[in-house]
Specification:
- Strands 1-2 form a two-stranded antiparallel sheet.
- The relative contact order is 0.13.
- The protein is globular and about 50 Å long.
- The longest helix is centred in the first third of the chain and has 23 residues.
- It is built from 8 helices and 2 strands.
- Helices cover about 55% and strands about 5% of the residues.
- A hairpin with a 4-residue loop joins strand 1 and strand 2.
Amino acid sequence: MLRLAPHRRLSSKVSRRKTLEFRICDIPTRVDDTVAIAALFQAIVAKLTKLIEKNLGFRLYRRMLIQENKWRAVRWGLDGKMIDFGKQKEVPTRDLVLELLDFVDDVLDDLGSRKEVEHIHTILERGTSADEQLRVYSETNDLKAVVDRLMELTMENVPRDVDLSVGKFATAPSTIAK
């Protein structure tokens, strides 16, 4: 079962526990995307643990090479190419994501997160929040429209019976962007 918890500074008592913290990407706008990426991270850890427990290895690459792919991901997103170090050539980022999904497939059912991880296919087809923001801005040339769309997407799939008001006053999305 996947459990998401807010980040908080670990006390000295808690920090003695085995913990693993991911600081790889920003939280996506859509809740479903965030859950999918968290489930994928969980599956990666489970898969690597499984390999280690079976005394099977995997390649380790120099930090400089990893940083190159990180830069490419930041610059080009899903539409770019990354270096597949095993093949020693550039490949579309989406292909590497699909390869990663294949890599973790055998641990998803044990984790109970197959549905959540399969949502990654939706992200690959639809694009990321950054893609959406660029699309809205290119269509409207209006940053307020981008903020309104971000707020709309953030509320997508959030239960409607939750009171999200802050204090006494409600604020329209467009007034926040001013």
